Amino acid sequence: SVCNISDRVIMMQLKSSPFNINLVQVYAPTSQSSEEDIETFYSQVEIATKTFQDKNINIILGDLNAKVGEGRDEDVIGPYGLGKRNDRGDVLVEFCKDNQMCIMNTYFKLPKRRLYTWTHPAHTAHNLIRNQIDFIIIKKRFRNAIKYTKTYPGADVGSDHNLLVSYIRVRLKKIINRNKTNRPNLEIIEESKENISNLLQTKISNIEPKEEVNEQWVSFKNVIQESTPDLKQAVRKKKTW
């Protein structure tokens, strides 16, 4: 299922067991945006992650327009970030701390060409301007499910962003919806038919006439239910092979 939170936040839920997987795709306001826009954005992201929080794996991914920089920061940032943190990076880190989440593309030791996600328009061979502003973020509880995260520069698309990929391994059970239909065991019904018929005739003949039709119907219904307890067990069971 897909839930459109806003023009910057959208969530897709993948049904599975024992956990559903919620992919929250985001596009954060740029550094030129107002503080109000930033607060609104992170409120929307929080709504997306907490709406289906129980028994769910929440993964935030996309362009956060923030630089978290190098250096470990508690469990939020690993030792392999890139560049220097900016103000928007501070906001992102605080959001992750408040929601017990980890920024996973700072956790894997890779060449810098596999870390940067965005190239500045003014970038040249003599003036390298590359930053890490796209992230894949997951709850601390499921951090070990992500085996690696890295970028693939040079994707066949006109973009200043690199493709960011995570390999995730989660043990899930496939959900199979089956409409169970109880088929009566005709052998049991056949064996009980004569006894039930005799019992019904006896009890029906003893029913006192009622003035109200509904009362008469209730009397008949009770007699039938009391006379056929064996039919409740007359369900064909699946053979064990």
UniProtKB/TrEMBL annotation:
Residues 21-163 form the Endonuclease/exonuclease/phosphatase domain. It comes from Cacopsylla melanoneura. One of its GO terms (molecular function) is catalytic activity. It comes from the Eukaryota. This is Craniofacial development protein 2. SUPFAM superfamilies: DNase I-like.
